[in-house]
Each structure stands twice: as structure tokens, then as C-alpha cells.
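Something for you to look into today, if you have time. Could you write out one complete protein record for me, on any chain you like? Leave the record below and I will have a look.
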Amino acid sequence: MKKERILAAMLAASMVTGLTACGGSQTTSGTSAASTTAENTQAAETAAVLTGSGEGQTITFWHSMGGVNGEAMEYLINKFNEENEKGITVEAQYQGAYDDAINKLKSAQIGNMGADLVQIYDIGTRFMIDSGWIIPMQQLIDADGWDESVIEPNIAAYYSVDNELYSMPFNSSTPLMYYNKDMFEAAGITEIPDSLPGIEAIGDDLLEKGGADEVIALAIYGWFFEQFTCKQGEHYVNNGNGREGIATAVEFDSNGSGLKTLTAWKSLADKGYAPNVGRGGDAGLADFSSGKAAITLASTASLKQILNDVNGKFEVGTAYFPKVSDEDQGGVSIGGASLWALNNEDPEREAAVWEFVKFLVSPESQAYWNVMTGYFPVNVEAHDEQLFLDNIAEYPQFETAIDQLHDSSPESAGALVSVFSEARSIVETEIENMINNQVSPEDTLNKIANQINSSIEEYNLLNN
């Protein structure tokens, strides 16, 4: 069974799988026969986890953290290697971008695991669960009697299926709305909008009185489309958002959320309030930080970069990610990546992996990680660390991110979808076409839905 699934995965190598979007419940009761078989096989193969001690083991950790984030990761790894009492050594290997890491993992699995622990982005979750290559993190937790309640529940829900945590959350973020307080004050705007229509309503004031050249630098980003679905409290895909069974088609076309999102987006663009600033999550940052745009949307993990780039030119405000309609009651989903334990059928290395994972999500480590990178501390006890408290005092804007996370719920955990990397590319291409070529929201929605459905169908045929 494992070999068959690996071969199927290799045939579908261009289809990166994942978990994202919102509106689904935390648990799933009905999975495909293939997925159920794979999960049962994993359970049997890993029943003896933590029979080893991990003493003196050397384990390999693949990660995708470069730049400042990479420096923070290196610090934590060195600290663990120097301080752990079991003589465990972690050999870290930077794999490049997230796509590079998961593609290398797919190739390595054919002959050799290559790693003991891997950092995989959110949209690789469905692939990792289906692969049959992993030890569910829940088994390590249960075998050690570790208190998993310290993990932020709205983050843990994202990586949980049937109340089983498959991977350990590590670098997690949500999107925020960033705004130029000076422009808002100059325009006489005292109430910060919380919806796309609300942003549209203040557009002329920001341009004519506030001194803005752009109302909102709205990047064309598939993750934002998913978040707008989430804010409406609707499902991205069918079968309970992919959590009551394997998703076979999108649902944002039939439940109306997709059309509402595209209509509101196009309205902002048509009025000149949201010009095309490019694709990808960082596409709107330059216009905002330079003082050109009054508003932008970006990850919580972008806060420090934005503050550094603004460098005091104006005061930066933060607010919740906007709703599509004023009456929307949904929350936000998380992004980022998590840690996956690979099943190398070596109890000693499995125990060593678990020791390292516990260290990475400890309150002290997570407070440091938050301060250095801007990602959420996934351990709630990190909020009591002085390092975290001092950072919040210095950067009060980050409190918005904490409040938004807590004001969401496990019901906004996100959808389980097989082809989210490809889906995001499709969404971005068609939204860009809608803005540049005056394609209607209705036609854009149909093109998006049809292409993603075809990709889901092809993936499911290969893997079920």
C-alpha cells in the first residue's frame, strides 16, 4: 500500500497538497478508504514509539527558514545541541523554499527517508497525512503523556483530524490589515473600516484629504481569497470543508462566497482604489511602507518588516483582516508551517525527535521565536515569558494579531484540500485577469471553480 501511494504521489508531483481556507469543523469522520488504510497502517507501525530514550542520537532536521528566520532557527538548534541532557545532536539542513523541501522529500522517500523531522508548509498537510510516511505527532504526545493543552487551540485545530494532531505547529501566522494612521487622521477618519465595503466608503477621503496615491495595496494572493471565504463563515470545498470526507469539489461557487469576494474585489479595482500591485503575499508591502498606499493586507509575520521599512515615516496601525460584507461573522485561518516526524522505524531516533520538538515548542523557545520572527508563539505559556511581554510593550500592534487569533474559533481551522498550491495559482491568475481585462466576477468564478475541480478530480483518481 505504501509503495502504491508513493508512486501515485510521484505521478502527481506537480500537485502540492495542503490544508487551508476556512469554515470547516475541527474533526472529520469520513475519509477515503485509501486514507483510512494509510492511517491504520501508520498506527500499527508506530505503536512502539518512545520505547527508546534518544540518548546520544543524531537526527536530521529539514527546514525552510532563511534570512533572519534562519538565524533564529540556527540559534535554537545550537541551544538544544548544547543544553539537552541526553547528548542528542540535531543536524539541520536548509532545503530552500517550502516547495523545494516537499519536492525533495517526495524524491527522497523512494530510496531513503533522508530526514527524521521536516518542516512542511500548511498547504502540504493533506499530502503528508496521505503519504503514510509519518508518525502522527499525537502518538508521540500520548506516549509521553505531554500536556498538549498548552498549544493554542485555534492553531492546533488546523493540523488536527479526528481530534488527532498530525504535526506540531511551529511557525504560524494570520493575515492583518495594516493602515497609515497619519493618512487616516488627515482624512478625518476616526472609525477604522472592518470590511471591503467599509474601505471603499472611505476611498475618496483617503485620496483627496489623506494624501494617499492608493487606497489599498491589495496583493493578488490565493491565501487572501481563502481568508475572505473564511470571514464569510463558508466552506471552501465540499464534504464538510474536506473534514467529513475527502474533498471532491470546491463549494465557494455554490454557497455564494466566491462571487461575493470577487464582486467586492473588482469593485475596489474598478473605482481605482485597489490597483494591481502584483501577485503574492508581499506584493503590497512596498507601496504601503513607502507611504503610497493607505492600507495593505499582509501576514502578522510581516509586522516587523513593515515597521522597519516605514522607519518612523508614519505611524502604523493594525486591525483585523477585513470582512467581505458588513454582516459577516467568520474568523481567520492560520498560515505558516509545522513539524512532521518521519517514520524511520528507529525508536531511538523517534525519541530524540520528540525531545527536540518539545524544546522547539517550549515557552522559552516560542517567546524567542516570536520576538525574532514575528510568528505567533504556539505555546500559550510563552505569553508569561518576560521576553514576550517586553516585545508586546515595544510593538503593541502585535496585540491585534493575538486578539484576532483568539476571537476566531476551531470552526475556522481551515479546509483539507488535495491541490491547494495549484489552486492558489489558479485563483491568482484569474483574479489578475479579472482586474486587467475587465472579466466579470461570474466568469472569473466559473473559470476558477472548473480548473480547481479538474485538479482535485485528477489528484483523487491518482491517490484513491
